Every structure is written in C-alpha cells, then in structure tokens.
C-alpha cells in the first residue's frame, strides 16, 4: 500500500482523542499502515460488457477526445489533444453501491452516506466451499457462529462481506452469473434473513456486500419477482455493495474496508471502488493499533457534490445528463 491510497477517497483522517494522540501522530498512523499492510482490490473492472441486470439497458462508452487523429482505431467525436470518454450506464452497474433510496423512497441517497460509513472494519464470512456443492446455498447462523468462535465477536460498525466464490463467473458474463435452469429459475447463493437480522440488529454492523448481482438467492428473485433481503437492508437505512470480487484474498478478520463512490446529488446508486487494507503478519499488532486510531479519527470530505449543473470545461457543455429508468411503485 502507498500513501496515495488514503487520498483516493478524498478523505483526511486525524487523531481526535488526546489519549490516542499520545500513542501515534496522524503522520505515524499513515506511515504505520503504509509499512505494515497489503491492499486487496475487491472491485470488478467496469466496462460496456459488464454483466448487468436484465432490466437495464446496456452501458455505452463514447470517445469524445483522443490524443491525435492519426490512429484509425479511434474516432473522437469532439476533438484531439487528450483522452476523454463519455460514459452512459445505470447506477447499479459493475461493483456498485445500493443506497437505501434505491428501494425505499425518502431514505438516503449516495451523497447522504456518511464519511464514517466508508472506512470500516472488514469481516469476511467464507461459505465458498458450501456454494461449490450447492449453488442455492444461503448462509446460516451456524456459519456465523463458527466464524465468531474462531475470530471473535463481529465488531460494531463493521462491513461484512459474504464470500461465495461466485465472482469466478464474472468474466463468463450474465448467463453464468444468473445461472438459470431450463425453467428460468436462478440458482445463485444468497444471504438469509436470520443472518442479516443478527448482523444488523444484534451486532449492529454498518453495511454488507457480496459477489452476486442480488442479495437474495436466485430461486427467490426469479420465482417471486421480489428481493426481500435487499429490501430489509435498505429499508433499515443501510447501504450494500454488490458484485464484489477477490473476497478470498483478505483476512477473515483484522482488515479495513475502504468504500469509495462519487458524491452524486440524489444518487440512486453508482459503481464503487472497494479496497481491503490488511495487516502483514510481521506487523499485525502495530497495524491494529494504527487502524484503531484511524477509525476513531475525524474525517473530512474534500469532494464537491456532483450534478448536471456543476462547472466543467467548456468543451464538455451539455454532456452530463441523468435519466430515470425506474421509479417507486404508486400506492
């Protein structure tokens, strides 16, 4: 990990408690985490061929500017001199954040997610071997109890990720991710209500994430047309991350999760960049001390809110637009 990682999300973290400051300065916290950590990218690469929910239009990328006009493979629409694309995609595309407002009208949108919800202790619940034997597998309380017996109680305000191994299908496309049978029934793993209730209500976690395109197992969504587990998370004003990857690489406990999303005014969802910052074996205790101070520190948002009216270079006039693809059901 290098120091630039801490700036990717435009967040500055400073020590606030006097007792903690005596232990490590802000600079020492950064230096310690830099020295004694490794970074794991939990984000799928986003492109026009990304597996996408069947109800969404395909994503498109338009080349606006390119370095010069001598490359026959590139035909910019607006000019040359530098490289700029225009992207058109649903908010729920690639590895993405679902804010509460994605399902529940009146609850929080992307720009209303608090800063301290973007830097969290990471917990990874590993059921990938069970999913390999049963694609319909839903995590059970027995799985969670086994985790806590081995690693300790899941901490408050954690980000809990469900590792199923399903991201290995990502490069194979939507059919592999959906895994439909001849009757159109999906066979994908998922969360369970008993586990989500335990995590959010008893352990009081902040957010959760998974590799699949849906929170609920595929047989539920394809036979009922409903998403009761996703509704539970969002209705309780929490966000979730979908379509994650590399969840077998972080440690099951002891890592930090960084969740970065653009600050889009009224955003219904957006592709996210999610990282796990994990301690090296030789510096795990030192890392833990620095990470604790970092989580307790004050955070500052260095980002402007984004909407169609933000100032931008004159060559980009009228390029930022937003279309509403879906709206809440009328009563």
Compute the average pLDDT.
90
| Count of extended strands | 14
Helix content: 10-25%
Basic shape: globular
- Give me the Rg, rounded: 21 Å
**Spatial strand order of the main sheet:** 2-13-11-7-8-9-10-6-12
| Residue windows where pLDDT falls under 50 for at least 5 positions | 1-21
- Topology order in helix (H) and strand (E) letters: EHHEEEEEEHHEHHEHHEEEEHE
Q: Note the gap between the termini.
A: 50 Å
Q: If you had to describe this structure to a student in words, what would you say it looks like?
A:
The chain is α/β, with parallel strands linked by helices. Helices cover 23% and strands 20% of the residues. The protein has a nine-stranded mixed beta sheet with strand order 2-13-11-7-8-9-10-6-12. Helix 2 crosses helix 9. The longest helix is centred in the last third of the chain and has 13 residues, at 284-296. The radius of gyration is 21 Å and the shape is globular. 37% of the residues are buried.
Features:
three-stranded mixed beta sheet; single chain; 331 residues; globular; alpha/beta; 14 strands; 9 helices; nine-stranded mixed beta sheet; disordered N terminus
Question: Helix and strand layout, with pairings?
Answer:
Layout: E1 11-14, H1 18-23, H2 26-35, E2 37-41, E3 60-66, E4 79-80, E5 84-88, E6 96-98, E7 119-126, H3 128-133, H4 141-151, E8 159-163, H5 174-178, H6 193-202, E9 207-210, H7 218-224, H8 228-235, E10 239-242, E11 255-260, E12 270-271, E13 273-279, H9 284-296, E14 298-301
Parallel strand pairs: 3-4, 7-8, 8-9, 9-10
Antiparallel strand pairs: 1-14, 2-13, 3-5, 6-10, 6-12, 7-11, 11-13
Helix pairs in contact: 2-9
